[in-house]
């Protein structure tokens, strides 16, 4: 990536980040859940939620396979799943009682990410933390801090940026299709090829995936 473009984008991104501090944090729930999951749950449940984590194999623990449990999870409220994770009704013997480690807000975020693992057909192929940084630098001017397509540029130009929080619309696009749009541009959207590498675009796609997942049930 061009150094001068990076420096200019960093300055702009910092200003836009300050402008968006008051935005509703609900849109970040699944992203925050990814952090909790990858800090604590991945060891047993595995990176894709299949119950095949390295610790589960070593200790011979039958960790839940969220993909296999999708129908059951779909029938559970967030509160019921939260209670199970915390150590209440339905809690599995081999699972820690996470109420002793995390507050409810973080566990509910983990619930949102578990639902993503259980139901999404789009694997997360890169680091969404890096992707969030690129989103802040390059995307929020048009797509907005919360990804709804309501950035300040919409008041200056006749544009209708995509709503990245719309699950029905975003789910129709494969990771490859979404990356191609970012790379080559579409309509009024500029092409980011030459500014972002293929790997950086993959990180951006991963973050956008977490924006488009519904937060609660």
Question: Which secondary-structure class do the elements indicate?
Answer: mainly alpha
CATH architecture of the largest domain: Orthogonal Bundle
Helicity range: 40-55%
Oligomer: single chain
Distance between the termini: 41 Å
* Tally of distinct domains: 2
CA-based gyration radius: 19 Å
Number of strands: 0
CATH topology of the largest domain: Cytochrome Bc1 Complex, Chain D, domain 2
Q: Estimate the strand proportion.
A: under 5%
Low-confidence stretches: 4-23
Give a brief description.
This protein is mainly α. The chain has helices at residues 3-19, 29-45, 54-59, 70-74, 78-86, 104-119, 128-138, 140-143, 167-171, 175-184, 198-211. It has 11 helices and no strands.
Explain this structure.
- The protein has 217 residues and is mainly alpha-helical.
- The protein folds into 2 domains: 3-22 and 125-211, Orthogonal Bundle (Cytochrome Bc1 Complex, Chain D, domain 2); 29-119, Cytochrome c-like domain (Cytochrome Bc1 Complex, Chain D, domain 2, Orthogonal Bundle), CATH 1.10.760.10.
- 53% of the residues lie in helices and 0% in strands.
- It has helices spanning 3-19, 29-45, 54-59, 70-74, 78-86, 104-119, 128-138, 140-143, 167-171, 175-184, 198-211.
- The longest helix has 17 residues, at 3-19.
- It is elongated.
- 33% of the residues are buried.
